[in-house]
Amino acid sequence: MRFRDRVAIVTGGGEGIGQATARRLAAEGASVLVMDIDAAAAITAAGGRAAAQAGSVTEEADVAAAVGAAIAAFGAIDVLVNNAAFTSKGTLAEVAPADWDREFAVTLRGAYLVTRAVLPHMAGRGRGAIVNIGSVNGLMYFGNPAYSAAKAGLLNLTRSLAVEAGPQGVRTNMVSPGSVRTGNPSWTERQRRDPAIFEKLARWYPVGRVGRPEDIAAAVCFLASDEAAFVNGANLVADGGLTAGFGVMAQDLNG
After folding, report:
1. Residue pLDDT tens, the chain, 255 long
2. Residue 151 appears among annotated catalytic residues
3. CATH dotted code for 7-179+214-254
4. Annotated active-site residue in 89, 112, 141, 147
5. Which of 89, 112, 141, 151 is catalytic?
6. How many Å apart are CA 170 and CA 83, to the nearest integer?
7. How far is it, in rounded angstroms, from Cα 123 to Cα 90?
8. Domain residues of the chain, as ranges?
9. Burial of 128 by CB count in 10 Å (0-12 exposed, 13-18 middle, 19+ buried)?
């Protein structure tokens, strides 16, 4: 129960990594606000404390309403997980200016807006933990260039916040997942084209599989907990060893 008497906001909490994170935080004692009615209902049905707030992380008014709802419902905000993200186009040639703007709006601007709304409250209390969900796409090329650029920007934002807000008692860190098996539209489309896509990707991962949402939720909860009290400005790469080296290439080279 690392989060007993703590309050968390999770953006993009309706599915995948966000949903798994919201559920784990609640299971460990946190009261959780998610911007998804169904996700909140699932948490309360399991005996946890949750509230829902409709809206988009790209709209300042919606963000302000969500932050206000969390404080009204639970009295404070201790943890923020910036998980909301969006991607649609796999190559730079496919990305139109409108696509670029939308991907940055959700993935990077959304994290900025929610953090900007929450930070004064956390700083005023002298405590808080922000965990941003990055991606190995922000570190290396794996396609989806607009999304990748936004995630790279989020890494720099994480470091900036760590330095600026650290003296006020607010820690900021990032978790950068590799491929995670979720039901989001980008993976659904890939599975439509190739039902065996996750099995094919598994050969690139030293652990022999792609990630599960619960794998990432565990990493997020560590960084958000008091166990990570001296961790600030870190990027925890949770990718099963993908970016540690290219085992498949090494096998080809060595016969």
Report:
1. 999 999 999 999 888 999 999 999 999 999 999 987 677 888 888 889 999 898 899 999 999 999 999 999 999 999 999 999 998 888 999 999 999 999 999 999 999 999 999 999 999 999 999 999 999 999 999 999 999 999 999 999 999 999 999 999 999 999 999 999 887 777 777 788 888 888 989 999 999 999 999 999 999 999 999 999 999 999 999 999 999 998 888 888 887
2. yes
3. 3.40.50.720
4. 147
5. 151
6. 18
7. 39
8. 7-179+214-254
9. buried
